[in-house]
Amino acid sequence: xDERAKHRKNLGPGTKVTICLNEDRSRFIDGNVKDLLTRSxxxxxxxxxxxxxxxxxxxKEILS
Length: 64
Prior knowledge:
Helix content is 0%, strand content 41%. By secondary structure, it is mostly beta strands. The chain is globular, with a radius of gyration of 10 Å. It starts with 15 loop residues before the first strand and ends with a strand.
């Protein structure tokens, strides 16, 4: 996991990321962040986000 993905300050709308889906933890999806769902500044498993396509999951890697 990308260490930057655990810190909210590194993410914002439009950031290209890879997430681990909430409903199926074995699937990884690339996309652009629409909303940050984790309110805390840090989360050990990655910040939870909603992508522009509607998928929700925790960020595993920041691509851009």
